Every structure is written in structure tokens, then in C-alpha cells.
Amino acid sequence: MSGLSDIKSVDWWLDQWGEWSRTQIGVRLKYPSLTPFERLRAKSSSSVAITHDEAAEVDAAISSLRMTKRIEHDVLREHYHRNRTYDEIARGQRKRYSDILAIAKCARASISEILFPHA
User: Fold this and answer.
1) What angle is formed at CA 13 by the lines to CA 54 and CA 27, rounded to 5 degrees?
2) Which residues neighbour 18 within 8 Å (Cβ) at sequence distance 6 or greater?
3) Cβ(116)–Cβ(4) under 8 Å?
4) pLDDT (tens digit, 9 = 90+) per residue, 51-99?
5) Is 76 within 8 Å of 111 (Cβ atoms)?
6) What share of the chain is helix, strand, coil (3-state, %, to 5)?
7) Alpha-carbon distance 101 to 39, whole Å?
């Protein structure tokens, strides 16, 4: 059962997870490290407002998508962990921007179902 409060939106939790995951480079999260350019592009100061345990719970929810909903997993990881815009993701995957937005919406709904099953 999720210990996360559903008072905050799933977008807030994902934003916080993204901040947390970028601070965990080299801590064996199974994500490739960011390039120097990406480090410069990221926010200069970490503003993580969730605990390590809460972030790990969001991380587990995102990881659970990897086997069954790979494209959703990849879009979330690219947007929140790698700090890429949906437009950049669309260009990189040679898909329409509107398709990536639809995938992201489904991905957020999937994460919401995992994190807040009774909401």
C-alpha cells in the first residue's frame, strides 16, 4: 500500500522524483549518468521536497511500467529524469508531439493508479 499522500498531484510527485533521480547520479539507480551538458542544463540547486523513501516508491512505480508499458516508461524517464521537453522527446523518437503528449498522459494515469489505488 502506498504511503504517499494523494493530496499532491501525480505531476508534483513525478517532478520531485525527477529532481531526486538527478541528484542520485552514481548511486546505482540503473539509469545512465547525465552528460556534462545535461548537468549544466539542469537546475543549479537541488530542490527535492520528498524523502528518499517516497522517491524510491515513485521510482518503483515508474520501473514497474518498464515491462508492460515500455513507451510510457521511456517518456516519463526522458521527461522527468533526463529533463527533456515533450517536443525534444517527440523529435528524438520521430513521433508527433501530440502522440507524445497522449503517451505522457496515459503514463501519468498509470503511475497515479499505482501510487494512489483508492483515489
Assistant:
1) 50
2) 79, 80, 81, 83
3) yes
4) 889 999 999 999 999 989 999 999 999 999 999 999 999 999 999 999 9
5) yes
6) 65, 0, 35
7) 25
- Whole-number Å distance between alpha carbons of 47 and 39: 15
Q: Which three cell numbers stand for residue 104?
A: 505522457
Long-range CB pairs of 19-26 (<8 Å, 24+ gap) are 19/43, 19/46, 19/47, 19/48, 20/48, 20/50, 20/52, 20/55, 21/55, 21/59, 21/80, 21/81, 22/46, 22/81, 22/83, 23/48
Helices (H) and strands (E) in the chain, counts: 6, 0
**Verdict on whether the full-model pTM lies above 0.85:** no
At 31, the amino acid letter reads Y
- 3-state SS assignment for residue 18: helix
